[in-house]
Every structure is written in C-alpha cells, then in structure tokens.
Amino acid sequence: MKRHIKILKKKLRNFNQKINEECGVFGISNAKDASALTALGLHALQHRGQEGCGIVSFDGNHYFSEKRFGLVGDNFNKEKVLKRLKGNYAIGHNRYSTTGENTLRNIQPFFADTNAGGIGVAHNGNLTNSILLRNKLVEEGAIFYTTSDTETIVQLIAKSKRKKTIDKIIDAIFQIQGGYALVMLTQNSLIGVRDPYGIRPLIIGKLNNSYVLASETCALDIIGAKFIREVENGEIVFIENDKLISVKPFSPRKIRPCVFEYIYFSRPDSILNGKSAYEHRKNFGIELAKENNLKADIVVPVPDSGNAAALGFAQHLGMKFELGLIRNHYVGRTFIEPSQKIRSLGVKLKLNANQSTIKGKKIILIDDSLVRGTTSHKIIKMLYDAGAKEVHMKIACPEIKFPDFYGVDTPTKKELLAANKTNNEICEYIGAKSLNFLTLNGLYKAVGFDKRNDNYPQLTDHYFTGDYPVKPVDELGDNKVTQLSLLNTGYNN
Ligand code: AMP
Hints:
Elements: H1 2-19, E1 24-28, H2 34-44, E2 52-58, E3 63-69, H3 72-75, H4 79-84, E4 89-95, E5 110-114, E6 117-127, H5 130-139, H6 149-159, H7 165-175, E7 178-186, E8 190-194, E9 203-207, E10 210-214, H8 218-221, E11 226-230, E12 236-240, E13 243-247, H9 259-265, E14 271-272, E15 275-276, H10 277-291, E16 298-301, H11 307-317, E17 320-321, E18 325-327, H12 340-350, E19 351-353, H13 355-358, E20 362-367, H14 374-385, E21 390-395, H15 417-420, H16 423-430, E22 434-437, H17 440-447, H18 462-465, H19 473-476
Parallel strand pairs: 16-17, 16-20, 20-21, 21-22
Antiparallel strand pairs: 1-4, 1-10, 2-3, 2-4, 5-6, 6-7, 7-8, 8-12, 9-10, 9-11, 12-13, 14-15, 18-19
Helix pairs in contact: 5-6, 6-7, 10-11, 10-17, 12-14
Bound molecules: adenosine monophosphate (AMP).
C-alpha cells in the first residue's frame, strides 16, 4: 500500500510538474481581429511550447474555443478557424510538456462557467503546492477533468464565495504558490497576473486602443504593438476596453525573475530588464572570455542556443567565429523528445559538423547551458569525428546543480550532471579537452547586477545556488495523493 501511494504520488507530481512548463501566453482586448492577432502573438512565442496551442475568444455574449496539437502556424492559419473565434477579446496559449498526458484536454486556455460568469485561463509556470490544493478540493467534492495545475486555479476561482470576479481571483491567488503568469478572459475584462516574485514573465503592450498581455516582447513586435511595461511581481492588471486598473494584493516583495529566461528561454530579440536577451547572452560570452581567455583557432557556437554567447566571447578576444555546426531547422528543440534515448537521437537529427571549417582546428565550443550533458557529449564526438584537433567546451552559465519547480523543464537532481560530477568528471564524460563554466559572479555582472549589492539576489537563480524563493511544498511535503484514473483519449470541443 505504501509503495502504491509512493508510485501514485510520483505520477501525480510528474503530471503536475510537466504540464505547464515553459508555456507562452498572450491576450488582447478591444481589437477587431482579436483572434487573428492572438494567433500571430502565439506564433512569435512558438519557441515557448510546440506541443499544443489554443485560443479562447469572447464576443460580448458567447465564448469560443479552439485547441489543437502542434504548431500555431499549422493550426491557426485558416480563415475558417479564426472566423469561428469571434469577438474583440481573445487569449491564447502555447503548451510545452514532455512525458505523458499528451491529450487535447490538457491544452489551454481552459474555460469554466462560474457564478460570476465565464472565465478563460491561460497559464505559464508551475505551482509548487498544487498537489496539496488539488487533494483538498477533491476531498471537498471537486471534479477534475485534466491533470494540469491550471485547473486547480480555475477551481479555486469558481469555488470562491466572493461576488466580484476580481475578489474571486484574489481569493485564488492567495492560495496558490510557485511561479506563474496568468492571462484570463472574463465577460468584461482581460486580466493579467504575475506571481509575487515575478519568476515567470508577463508584459503589457498597446496597439492603438487595445491592450496586449504577453510572455515576451517579441509577441508585441509581430503585431506592431508598443511595449508599455512589465506586469509587476504580485500585480493583477484588469483591462476593460481601453482602461487598465492595477491591483497589488500581496505585501511588497522584491522582484526575482527566473535567470533561465536570460540564459536560454526567451527569444533573443525579446527585452528583459531593458536589454534584449541577445545582448545579455553576448555579455555572458564576454564575461566568460574575461574569466577564461584561452586562445584557439576558432570559436564555434552550439546553434542556436550558444550563438550570442559565442559571438560575445570571440569578439572580446578578437578570435575567429565560425559556424562549425550546422542546424537542421525543421527539428524542434531537443528537449521536446520524451525519453533520454530519443533525446540522444534528437541531437543527431538536429546538428551536423561543418567539416570544412573544423578539420585540424583547435576549437572553443560554446553553449548556453549544460544540463544532462547529452548535447555536449554528442556534439564533441561529432566534431572529433569530423577531424577537429582539440575541442575545449565553455558554458555561458554556471553549473546547474538544482532542479527547477517553477516552470522550466530541468530534470531531477539525479540527472543533473553538475550535481553529481566534478568538473573533471564532466569534462571526461562529454569528451572535451577542457571545460569551463561562467561563474555566478560573472553572470550577475553580465546582466548588469552586482552580487555585492544589498538587493542581491536579483534573480531566481536556484539552479546554481539551491536558493528557492518559494518553498516547493509538494516536493517536500508528504501529501496523501488522490488517485488519478484519467481516460487517455483526449476530447474534441
Ligand atoms: P543537455 O544536453 O542535457 O546538457 O542540455 C543542454 C542543452 O539543452 C543546451 O544546448 C541548452 O540550450 C538546452 N536546454 C537547456 N535548458 C533547457 C530547457 N529547459 N528546455 C529545453 N532545452 C534546454
């Protein structure tokens, strides 16, 4: 029985952790082609999730919903589909998840009827106490239709005894913990919510008289909207027609956005704290060069994740930058593959050595991060097989030693290479001649923060430090788990 509970607990934890990772959210108010603009916004945010996408719109009387597996461009490219999504208000979601539960019912936005009217919810992030909340709700008689922690938020809103939607939402967000950026659609408003530490990103833009909410600024650029500001940490914004009302229900806390948005996740042209992610990443490369000024024949990036850092590194040291690896652009991100075996295959499918540039060369190979080491291991072998003389690996972030629970897909501590091996052991495992990581100091310098500042840490950087701003309650607790018996067939709405 004990073992049975343990297995169920692991299962539910996996479900809860894997469902809302790294998603992209978008919403627009008061716009004639709201659903088409949402489809464009989601297309710009496609890198945040490629597994499924959905749009919910509202025309003043009715809500409309379309959800699909796969890419936005393949699914929301037809007038027929967009025409069904009527109304001047719309929200959308790109979903990323890895294993299991690849069913249509888990694709967002979710929709529910509450006693204050209909509500659509799109969520990026991961709740750290959703098992606890879900169990409580189930004990009280709630029926769950999905395995997603987003449904927990919807249930909490629906269950609130308060009358006004805003109060219901406040009721719900006081109970949830973790990293979250929510975009919601009610009968009279578009709503954005960002978690108390601002771990997950959410920004506000304007297109004529329309307000736009999105995960990243690149979603504004595509529709010609202007960037206004970030939704602040712990802020709720209510948008009705062309008015925006800000509510801050939490006691003030300093903002600590997720460092991985800077390192890997955001699109290079998106703005983070006043600078493009591209500039930040180039600066990581510059700091890396200052810390390790080894000379070699060429600097080669792991495309595309290492491009900006490698460019910064090479420019700083006046070294030659070469494309020693060529990427096949018709393969998704490596991590999308659900198993370690397939993931290993994924690297081969995606990259090939560019023999003409690397043969006989001493190479500095640069990537943004090293997680399991799968990518580096394969690529270094590929470079040596293609005739490289020496391959020195440099990673443009510190050693990842701690897993994430706020919505980025990092594996368990057991699988994190740097959590279990010394630098020399990792170097041997990946087959490099030498290996260096950017220091945490260097990372903070590159972003323009100072580690000695009173305000430190300015980022959620637990990956390197183990400093989790929000306690991962479900991970630490011993919650009895409600049995899940989901029918794995999906549904059509
Ligand atoms: P690994 O091969 O396991 O060492 O992972 C490192 C590679 O995966 C690097 O090329 C990164 O750009 C990429 N990567 C790092 N973190 C993530 C993530 N959370 N999701 C998808 N890809 C990632």
